[in-house]
Amino acid sequence: xxxxxxxxxxxxxxxxxxxxxxxxxxxxxxxxxxxxxxxxxxxxxxxxxxxxxxxxxxxxxxxxxxxxxxxxxxxxxxxxxxxxxxxxxxxxxxxxxxxxxxxxxxxxxxxxxxxxxxxxxxxxxxxxxxxxxxxxxxxxxxxxxxxxxxxxxxxxxxxxxxxxxxxxxxxxxxxxxxxxxxxxxxxxxxxxxxxxxxxxxxxxxxxxxxxxxxxxxxxxxxxxxxxxxxxxxxxxxxxxxxxxxxxxxxxxxxxxxxxxxxxxxxxxxxxxxxxxxxxxxxxxxxxxxxxxxxxxxxxxx
Length: 301
Hints:
7 helices; mainly alpha
């Protein structure tokens, strides 16, 4: 006969249980049908013949119930009831199905259902947000792809260079009429040249139109205070330089006048001890002629 007390005595704290995990503070249970996750008498799914729990499968919540009448049929031991996605309706369904069950089991089922609904809402929000996907990359593959890209780039450059050279020779008619390649490549090159010339002409016309429009416009330019201060500094420098020149010229004139006065005041023979050197003049000789009357005329008179 099935007895819950005998099962708990054999699986409890005294004996071994494969679902039990011991820690310093609590003992936890790894059984998928455990209601609280703790290893104790009231929440052990093996030691309780009447038991209920909530499970989530692919975003849908289910109510699992076990009774003593189905203990002899392991395939039909657990009865599953699908709960509504509406939170309030699901709580009412739990109350209806567990109306005569212990209050502890009914309360813990509701608590577990609320936690499951909360993390399902959180999962939906995270999936709607843009997330970064971390993809592992192999260095060997990266090196191989890099080498292939370099080789493909070199081959493409060679092909373009060969095509340009052949087109230039075709324009110059170096080989005469001996050509074995299709004419569409030559036509394509001509179309590209025409398109480039048209684009250049369009840009030139646009630039000319913009210049013509800008020529008629009048604009008022604001002068910065720094520029005005620079002009004032320049004016101050110019006025100060003119004043210095005037002072120098006046001082030179005064010195000349003082030198002339000292020269006139002193004697001609003596040279001044100090002051500017005396200016030498050219030597001039003066001759005087006297006219005398003859003696005969004087006697006659």
